[in-house]
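Quick one: structure for this chain?
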Amino acid sequence: MTLTKAQIVNSIHEEIGLPKKEASDTVETLLEIMKTTLSRGEDILISGFGKFCVKDKKQRKGRNPATGDDMMLAKRRVVTFRCSAALRHKINGA
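Got it. Here's what it folds into:
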């Protein structure tokens, strides 16, 4: 099951008692800060959770899967996530 933004807002509302509107605004603000930071090429480190990193991919040769034709894929940026040791232990039940 996937955790949605609405479910995060509901969890904040139930666990902290924050009104849903304020919880929603908080989640939206946090996500906007993260998007802005990543779009500037900066990494995000959340202690005990993990690190979001922006990586540059070089231009490379690829293949169109529909036609089989060779093509050049443009350089691009991708976001990667590396979880912290604490999160890894929690996921693995240790």
